[in-house]
Amino acid sequence: MTRVIYFDCFSGISGDMALGALLDAGLDLQQLREALGALAIDGWAIDAERGMRRFLSGTQARVAAPTLDAHRHLADVQAIIGNSWLPPHVRERSIRVFDLLAHAEAQVHGMPVDEVHFHEVGALDAIVDIVGVVSGLDLLGISECYASALPLGTGWVRAAHGRIPVPAPATLNLLAAAGAPILADETRAELVTPTGAALLAALATFRRPAMRIERVGYGLGSRDLDHPNALRVWIGVHDPAERPDVAADRSGSGSIVVLLETNIDDQSAEQLAYANEQLFALGALDVWATPIQMKKGRSAILLSILIPAAIEAAAVSLLMRETTTLGIRRRTIERYVAEREILTISTPLGSVRYKRKRWNGVDLGGAPEYEDCAALARSHGIPLREVYHMVHAAVAAQEAGPPTGSRLLSGHHPS
Asked: What is the pTM of this model?
């Protein structure tokens, strides 16, 4: 069973609304304070207050922190989070949110990412908001995040650079990069802030999941609008075997995973091979490289990584560390996975594992495990194809008479 959260953004999202929604849905405030204490920075405080927005009751998160005259760069925020005592996966996901913010701001201002000044989002209260949401999800045991389509509002807001249109340019860049669905909306207010957009872009898939709902929470916005200004979260569990959106039926299997891709034209094959090894060790389902030609006729490699959604942030961080990439594309992929059964087959040379494939209850054949066959070929000094022939002959004999193999493992094993 997987614990999931659905951000129901009927009135948009901001960092404090997300934090308030988690607290309203059962996140313990004192545990959150203790988790944020790992940042090892002073001067902030967080409280929660029950309230109403129109006819809906909920929780408003209040983060207090001193205002600094100097604005932070991405490296400053990375250092604050990276040098903390937060769990590694919380650090990585929090830094990813700020990485996306920095790239969006750099695109807006036409400057390198490392020169971007974080104004509002670099303030201590924004850092507490973002790290608080990521830590809250971790404390609640949530491994998958989803989000609804977003209303953005209209009009103008005042920021460090002066009056800017709604949605803010950085917000729009973040949502465009994430492929977020947008609702028609004419509310004269900023409904999605850059912080809220970055949280969803970094953590969420934009669709409603199949789930059994256990808790609901409402995070209140700071303003009173002509509708309930709140963010609603649904928290629950789903069982992949019971999900109609990915499972064909009980005998077949489907799943949703994440595909990461990046183009690399300036790194050695040895370093890329090492990165591949690290990705598999992390839990990647598959990694492959495709020769491509980029602009100006440059030869390059398209590196593709198929991963479970739960390790996406860790995989992105690994790619940033181990490769020369400056950007990574991502999208969710639906797939079907055949049922597999691993048998142990006895041959005159020794035992070999044999993977049998089934779909909808129909046996579709199988194949010997290469590593086992190669080991026997080396130890006996015979061609590998002869070992394969012996295994297939043993399987045919087993099917014709009493079973000679013993089943070790049966079930769904994506690869």
From this structure: 0.61
